[in-house]
Amino acid sequence: MATIADPAVTAAAAPRRPRSGLLHFIGRLFREKPLGAVCAVIFVLFLLCGIFADVLAPYGYNQISPLNRLKPPSMKWPFGTDNLGRDMLSRCIYGAQLSVIIGFCAAGIATVISIVLGIVSGYLGGKFDLIVQRFVDAWMSFPDLIILIVVVSVVGPGMVQIICTLGLLLGIAGSRIIRGAVVSVRENMYVHAAQSTGASTFRVLWRHILPNVMAPVIVLFTTRVGTVILAESGLSFLGLGVPPPAPTWGGLLSGSGRTYMLQGPWLALAPGLCLTVVVYATNMFGDALRDLLDPRMRDSR
Prior knowledge:
Layout: H1 7-13, H2 22-32, H3 34-51, H4 53-56, H5 88-124, H6 126-140, H7 144-155, H8 159-185, H9 189-196, H10 201-209, H11 214-237, H12 249-254, H13 256-259, H14 266-293, H15 295-299
Protein backbone atom coordinates (compact mmCIF):
# COMPACT_ATOMS: atom_id res chain seq x y z
CA MET A 1 0.00 0.00 0.00
CA ALA A 2 1.46 3.32 -1.04
CA THR A 3 2.08 5.88 1.66
CA ILE A 4 1.99 9.61 1.33
CA ALA A 5 5.27 11.20 2.34
CA ASP A 6 5.17 13.93 4.93
CA PRO A 7 6.11 17.23 3.22
CA ALA A 8 8.01 18.39 6.30
CA VAL A 9 10.06 15.16 6.42
CA THR A 10 10.68 15.32 2.69
CA ALA A 11 11.85 18.92 2.91
CA ALA A 12 14.16 18.09 5.80
CA ALA A 13 15.59 15.05 4.04
CA ALA A 14 16.17 16.84 0.76
CA PRO A 15 19.70 18.13 0.29
CA ARG A 16 20.06 21.84 0.67
CA ARG A 17 20.94 23.71 -2.47
CA PRO A 18 24.13 25.69 -2.15
CA ARG A 19 23.61 29.37 -1.74
CA SER A 20 24.76 31.55 -4.58
CA GLY A 21 25.02 35.18 -5.31
CA LEU A 22 27.16 38.14 -4.44
CA LEU A 23 26.40 38.11 -0.70
CA HIS A 24 27.35 34.45 -0.40
CA PHE A 25 30.60 35.09 -2.25
CA ILE A 26 31.43 38.05 0.00
CA GLY A 27 30.71 35.87 3.04
CA ARG A 28 33.09 33.20 1.73
CA LEU A 29 35.72 35.87 1.09
CA PHE A 30 35.60 37.14 4.68
CA ARG A 31 35.38 33.63 6.15
CA GLU A 32 38.02 31.83 4.10
CA LYS A 33 40.35 34.65 3.07
CA PRO A 34 40.37 37.32 5.83
CA LEU A 35 43.54 38.99 4.51
CA GLY A 36 42.06 39.14 1.02
CA ALA A 37 38.83 40.56 2.46
CA VAL A 38 40.70 43.34 4.29
CA CYS A 39 42.65 44.12 1.14
CA ALA A 40 39.38 44.14 -0.82
CA VAL A 41 37.99 46.75 1.57
CA ILE A 42 41.13 48.85 1.17
CA PHE A 43 40.94 48.47 -2.60
CA VAL A 44 37.29 49.58 -2.64
CA LEU A 45 38.09 52.55 -0.40
CA PHE A 46 40.81 53.74 -2.78
CA LEU A 47 38.44 53.18 -5.67
CA LEU A 48 35.76 55.30 -4.01
CA CYS A 49 38.34 57.97 -3.19
CA GLY A 50 39.28 58.11 -6.84
CA ILE A 51 35.67 58.25 -8.05
CA PHE A 52 34.51 60.86 -5.52
CA ALA A 53 37.74 62.83 -5.24
CA ASP A 54 35.97 66.12 -6.00
CA VAL A 55 33.66 65.56 -3.01
CA LEU A 56 36.11 64.02 -0.53
CA ALA A 57 39.09 66.33 -1.02
CA PRO A 58 38.91 69.21 1.48
CA TYR A 59 40.83 71.54 -0.85
CA GLY A 60 41.61 71.81 -4.53
CA TYR A 61 44.63 69.85 -5.68
CA ASN A 62 46.34 73.07 -6.85
CA GLN A 63 44.99 75.44 -4.17
CA ILE A 64 47.99 77.41 -2.88
CA SER A 65 48.36 78.88 0.62
CA PRO A 66 51.81 80.55 0.97
CA LEU A 67 51.26 81.20 4.68
CA ASN A 68 50.99 77.44 5.34
CA ARG A 69 54.13 76.22 3.58
CA LEU A 70 55.66 72.90 4.75
CA LYS A 71 53.25 72.43 7.64
CA PRO A 72 53.70 69.05 9.36
CA PRO A 73 50.77 66.64 9.68
CA SER A 74 48.13 67.88 12.11
CA MET A 75 44.38 67.85 12.66
CA LYS A 76 43.96 70.62 10.08
CA TRP A 77 46.45 69.13 7.62
CA PRO A 78 46.37 65.32 8.10
CA PHE A 79 49.13 64.75 5.52
CA GLY A 80 50.81 68.13 5.94
CA THR A 81 51.37 70.73 3.22
CA ASP A 82 53.98 71.07 0.49
CA ASN A 83 56.39 73.88 -0.38
CA LEU A 84 53.55 75.95 -1.91
CA GLY A 85 51.10 75.39 0.95
CA ARG A 86 48.98 72.86 -0.93
CA ASP A 87 47.18 70.24 1.14
CA MET A 88 48.89 66.86 0.65
CA LEU A 89 45.77 64.90 1.59
CA SER A 90 43.80 66.56 -1.20
CA ARG A 91 46.60 65.99 -3.67
CA CYS A 92 46.88 62.32 -2.71
CA ILE A 93 43.12 61.88 -3.12
CA TYR A 94 43.21 63.45 -6.58
CA GLY A 95 46.25 61.29 -7.31
CA ALA A 96 44.10 58.27 -6.48
CA GLN A 97 41.59 59.47 -9.07
CA LEU A 98 44.24 59.54 -11.79
CA SER A 99 45.68 56.21 -10.65
CA VAL A 100 42.25 54.56 -10.69
CA ILE A 101 41.48 55.83 -14.20
CA ILE A 102 44.87 54.86 -15.63
CA GLY A 103 45.06 51.57 -13.71
CA PHE A 104 41.62 50.25 -14.65
CA CYS A 105 41.67 51.43 -18.26
CA ALA A 106 45.16 50.14 -19.02
CA ALA A 107 44.58 46.88 -17.12
CA GLY A 108 41.29 46.38 -18.97
CA ILE A 109 42.93 46.89 -22.36
CA ALA A 110 45.80 44.59 -21.38
CA THR A 111 43.43 41.86 -20.18
CA VAL A 112 41.37 41.95 -23.39
CA ILE A 113 44.52 41.69 -25.52
CA SER A 114 45.82 38.83 -23.36
CA ILE A 115 42.50 36.97 -23.63
CA VAL A 116 42.28 37.29 -27.41
CA LEU A 117 45.88 36.32 -28.09
CA GLY A 118 46.08 33.65 -25.41
CA ILE A 119 42.81 31.88 -26.15
CA VAL A 120 43.15 31.87 -29.94
CA SER A 121 46.82 30.87 -29.83
CA GLY A 122 46.37 28.19 -27.19
CA TYR A 123 43.26 26.66 -28.77
CA LEU A 124 44.34 26.61 -32.41
CA GLY A 125 47.92 25.53 -31.74
CA GLY A 126 50.11 24.44 -34.64
CA LYS A 127 52.02 26.95 -36.73
CA PHE A 128 49.76 29.81 -35.68
CA ASP A 129 50.60 29.20 -32.02
CA LEU A 130 54.29 28.89 -32.87
CA ILE A 131 54.37 32.21 -34.73
CA VAL A 132 52.41 34.05 -32.04
CA GLN A 133 54.57 32.71 -29.22
CA ARG A 134 57.80 33.61 -30.99
CA PHE A 135 56.44 37.14 -31.40
CA VAL A 136 55.57 37.22 -27.70
CA ASP A 137 59.07 35.98 -26.84
CA ALA A 138 60.63 38.74 -28.92
CA TRP A 139 58.31 41.31 -27.35
CA MET A 140 59.13 40.18 -23.80
CA SER A 141 62.87 40.31 -24.50
CA PHE A 142 62.74 44.12 -24.44
CA PRO A 143 62.71 45.77 -20.99
CA ASP A 144 59.28 47.22 -20.21
CA LEU A 145 60.61 50.51 -18.86
CA ILE A 146 62.76 51.10 -21.94
CA ILE A 147 59.78 50.59 -24.26
CA LEU A 148 57.66 52.91 -22.14
CA ILE A 149 60.30 55.63 -22.12
CA VAL A 150 60.84 55.39 -25.89
CA VAL A 151 57.14 55.41 -26.78
CA VAL A 152 56.22 58.23 -24.40
CA SER A 153 59.23 60.24 -25.57
CA VAL A 154 58.06 59.89 -29.19
CA VAL A 155 54.30 60.43 -28.79
CA GLY A 156 54.58 62.78 -25.80
CA PRO A 157 53.36 62.46 -22.20
CA GLY A 158 49.64 62.25 -21.49
CA MET A 159 47.00 60.04 -19.95
CA VAL A 160 45.75 58.52 -23.23
CA GLN A 161 49.26 57.74 -24.43
CA ILE A 162 50.18 56.07 -21.14
CA ILE A 163 46.99 53.99 -21.04
CA CYS A 164 47.37 52.73 -24.62
CA THR A 165 51.09 52.04 -24.26
CA LEU A 166 50.76 50.18 -20.96
CA GLY A 167 47.72 48.26 -22.20
CA LEU A 168 49.52 47.04 -25.32
CA LEU A 169 52.78 46.33 -23.49
CA LEU A 170 51.25 44.31 -20.66
CA GLY A 171 48.58 42.69 -22.83
CA ILE A 172 51.01 40.99 -25.19
CA ALA A 173 53.22 39.79 -22.33
CA GLY A 174 50.23 38.54 -20.30
CA SER A 175 48.89 36.42 -23.15
CA ARG A 176 51.44 33.75 -22.21
CA ILE A 177 49.60 33.13 -18.92
CA ILE A 178 46.19 32.77 -20.60
CA ARG A 179 47.65 30.57 -23.31
CA GLY A 180 49.07 28.16 -20.70
CA ALA A 181 45.67 27.85 -19.03
CA VAL A 182 43.93 27.28 -22.38
CA VAL A 183 46.36 24.52 -23.40
CA SER A 184 45.44 22.55 -20.26
CA VAL A 185 41.69 23.19 -20.60
CA ARG A 186 41.37 22.28 -24.29
CA GLU A 187 42.28 18.64 -23.58
CA ASN A 188 39.30 18.10 -21.26
CA MET A 189 36.50 15.76 -22.30
CA TYR A 190 33.79 18.42 -22.42
CA VAL A 191 35.78 20.36 -25.03
CA HIS A 192 36.17 17.24 -27.17
CA ALA A 193 32.46 16.50 -26.72
CA ALA A 194 31.53 19.99 -27.92
CA GLN A 195 33.82 19.61 -30.93
CA SER A 196 32.35 16.21 -31.79
CA THR A 197 28.81 17.63 -31.81
CA GLY A 198 29.82 20.15 -34.47
CA ALA A 199 30.05 23.25 -32.28
CA SER A 200 31.76 26.17 -33.98
CA THR A 201 35.16 27.38 -32.86
CA PHE A 202 33.69 30.60 -31.51
CA ARG A 203 31.09 28.68 -29.45
CA VAL A 204 33.72 26.35 -28.01
CA LEU A 205 35.93 29.30 -27.08
CA TRP A 206 33.06 31.34 -25.61
CA ARG A 207 31.09 28.62 -23.81
CA HIS A 208 33.74 26.10 -22.77
CA ILE A 209 37.23 27.61 -22.84
CA LEU A 210 36.75 31.17 -21.56
CA PRO A 211 34.63 30.32 -18.45
CA ASN A 212 37.23 27.77 -17.34
CA VAL A 213 40.15 30.20 -17.57
CA MET A 214 38.40 33.05 -15.77
CA ALA A 215 40.39 32.46 -12.58
CA PRO A 216 43.76 33.39 -14.16
CA VAL A 217 42.03 36.16 -16.11
CA ILE A 218 40.74 37.78 -12.90
CA VAL A 219 44.09 37.42 -11.18
CA LEU A 220 45.83 38.84 -14.26
CA PHE A 221 43.52 41.86 -14.28
CA THR A 222 43.92 42.66 -10.58
CA THR A 223 47.69 42.28 -10.65
CA ARG A 224 47.86 44.37 -13.80
CA VAL A 225 46.09 47.22 -12.00
CA GLY A 226 48.90 47.35 -9.45
CA THR A 227 51.54 46.98 -12.17
CA VAL A 228 50.06 49.85 -14.19
CA ILE A 229 49.91 52.13 -11.14
CA LEU A 230 53.57 51.38 -10.39
CA ALA A 231 54.60 51.88 -14.02
CA GLU A 232 52.74 55.19 -14.26
CA SER A 233 54.32 56.33 -11.01
CA GLY A 234 57.74 55.43 -12.37
CA LEU A 235 57.09 57.42 -15.55
CA SER A 236 55.84 60.38 -13.53
CA PHE A 237 58.92 60.16 -11.33
CA LEU A 238 61.05 60.43 -14.47
CA GLY A 239 58.98 63.35 -15.75
CA LEU A 240 57.33 61.34 -18.56
CA GLY A 241 53.95 60.69 -16.98
CA VAL A 242 50.83 62.81 -16.79
CA PRO A 243 52.14 66.39 -17.05
CA PRO A 244 51.81 68.75 -14.05
CA PRO A 245 49.96 70.25 -12.30
CA ALA A 246 48.07 66.90 -12.24
CA PRO A 247 48.96 65.36 -8.85
CA THR A 248 49.98 61.79 -9.67
CA TRP A 249 51.61 59.80 -6.88
CA GLY A 250 54.82 59.38 -8.86
CA GLY A 251 54.86 63.07 -9.67
CA LEU A 252 54.44 63.93 -5.98
CA LEU A 253 57.41 61.72 -5.14
CA SER A 254 59.54 63.19 -7.90
CA GLY A 255 58.63 66.82 -7.34
CA SER A 256 58.38 68.35 -3.90
CA GLY A 257 58.75 64.95 -2.22
CA ARG A 258 62.33 64.57 -3.44
CA THR A 259 63.30 68.23 -3.35
CA TYR A 260 62.10 68.92 0.19
CA MET A 261 62.62 65.45 1.65
CA LEU A 262 64.76 66.72 4.53
CA GLN A 263 62.59 69.72 5.41
CA GLY A 264 59.32 67.85 5.02
CA PRO A 265 59.65 64.03 4.94
CA TRP A 266 55.85 63.71 4.87
CA LEU A 267 55.91 65.00 1.28
CA ALA A 268 57.40 61.68 0.18
CA LEU A 269 55.85 59.47 2.84
CA ALA A 270 52.23 60.35 1.99
CA PRO A 271 52.20 59.41 -1.74
CA GLY A 272 54.67 56.56 -1.14
CA LEU A 273 52.42 55.05 1.52
CA CYS A 274 49.36 55.37 -0.70
CA LEU A 275 51.20 53.71 -3.56
CA THR A 276 52.47 50.85 -1.38
CA VAL A 277 49.12 50.14 0.26
CA VAL A 278 47.03 50.15 -2.91
CA VAL A 279 49.44 47.91 -4.85
CA TYR A 280 49.71 45.43 -1.97
CA ALA A 281 45.93 45.40 -1.48
CA THR A 282 45.33 44.85 -5.18
CA ASN A 283 47.70 41.89 -5.37
CA MET A 284 46.36 40.21 -2.22
CA PHE A 285 42.78 40.73 -3.36
CA GLY A 286 43.60 39.13 -6.70
CA ASP A 287 45.15 36.10 -5.00
CA ALA A 288 42.07 35.68 -2.82
CA LEU A 289 39.78 35.85 -5.85
CA ARG A 290 41.86 33.21 -7.60
CA ASP A 291 41.60 30.82 -4.65
CA LEU A 292 37.83 31.28 -4.41
CA LEU A 293 36.99 31.17 -8.11
CA ASP A 294 39.28 28.42 -9.33
CA PRO A 295 37.16 25.22 -9.48
CA ARG A 296 40.20 22.99 -9.04
CA MET A 297 41.22 24.69 -5.79
CA ARG A 298 37.60 24.70 -4.58
CA ASP A 299 37.27 20.93 -5.15
CA SER A 300 40.52 20.25 -3.31
CA ARG A 301 39.26 21.76 -0.07
